[in-house]
Amino acid sequence: MSWILATSMCAYGQSLAPQAIPPVDRTTQLDGTTETVASGDQLQVNVEDLDEVHNLNVRIASDGNLDLPLVGLVPVDGLTIAGLRARLTERYSKYVRQPVITVSVLTSQSRTVSVVGEVNSPSVQEITGTLTVVSAITKAGGIRPDAGPKVILTRDAKAGILPLPGATVTPDGHSRIALSLDDLLAAKAPENNISLRAGDVVSIPKGSLVYVIGNVHRAGGFPLRSSGSISLVEALALAEGLSPNARSQDAKILRLVNPGGEKRQEIPVNINQILAGKQADPMLFADDILFVPNSAAKSGARRTAEAILQVTTGILIYR
């Protein structure tokens, strides 16, 4: 009986004995970023229960080392924040049992992205917090009127592959993808509005143009956006309409026979019939030219009317 009781007490004592709980390595809990630190970055380092490293501001030296109290020089160049915390934990474990370490990037010379092309203020921007494709374009002053329909996003080989379907890898290892600018700005494809990494380049090329020349109020080239085409009536509206002496029934679309060539075919269009809804509104494509000729009869009549007006005005003034 006593043996049974002793055995039961032993089992009971084992059940109440404190169990060894593996320590939680909080230094390996990622903070959601894969960005790395580099020389020139200003960091704030805090080690709990260690007054010598309480919210300490320190800069990574040009040789990639941090000079910290008690542990001296620590090589950190190229480490992620999580990797940096892990390395400091290893060093400060000699002074604090299971040290809890936090690291913040105050300023970074290495965490920058470039926004170039058809934006109002091309710039190099520092990544503070989260910087998305759209927010980078916004910080660059937004897009110019002649911006094309695409955003070209390029990521340096050292930063990994762009996490987007359709991204390609260049021969030098960079990752690249073309995204729809209109869809991004209209939030139609929020999955493409990814967070940028250090070294990323956001490029907005100039758009293809169609040209309206001749007897319109504002001749010039007008950019095509996402559709890659524009109707004749839309192009005419961008040119602010026909001038009074336009021979609109004899207009022409001049279209390149071969892309990059010089020879063009002439496509006659009757703008009067199109505006009246009696003919279909044709589409204009990249490098098309809409030419609206001059009406000699209208010009002559207009000059006669101006002469009569001048004479009449002179008589009225004389009287």
Structural write-up:
The structure is a single chain. This protein is of the alpha+beta class and 319 residues long. It has helices at residues 2-16, 81-92, 133-139, 181-185, 232-238, 271-275, 296-318, and strands at 42-47, 56-59, 65-68, 72-75, 101-107, 112-117, 123-126, 150-155, 168-169, 175-180, 201-204, 209-214, 220-223, 229-231, 251-256, 264-269, 283-285, 289-292. The strands form 5 sheets. The chain has a 6-stranded mixed beta sheet. A 5-stranded mixed beta sheet has the order 13-12-18-15-16, with helices on one face. Strands 2-1-5 form a 3-stranded antiparallel beta sheet, with helices on one face. β12 (209-214) and β13 (220-223) form a beta hairpin. The termini are far apart.
Quickly list its features:
single chain, 319 residues, alpha+beta, six-stranded mixed sheet, five-stranded mixed sheet, 7 helices, 18 strands, rod-shaped, disordered N terminus, disordered C terminus
Helix tally equals 7
Radius of gyration: 35 Å
Question: Level of helix content?
Answer: 10-25%
N-to-C series of helices and strands: HEEEEHEEEHEEEHEEEEHEEHEEH
Morphology call: rod-shaped
| Share of β-strand residues | 25-35%
Biggest beta sheet summary: 6 strands, mixed
Kindly report the spatial arrangement of strands forming the biggest sheet: 7-6-11-8-10-9
Distance from first to last alpha carbon? 143 Å
How many DSSP-defined strands?
A: 18
Structural class: alpha+beta
Low-confidence stretches: 1-32, 299-319
Determine the mean pLDDT: 82
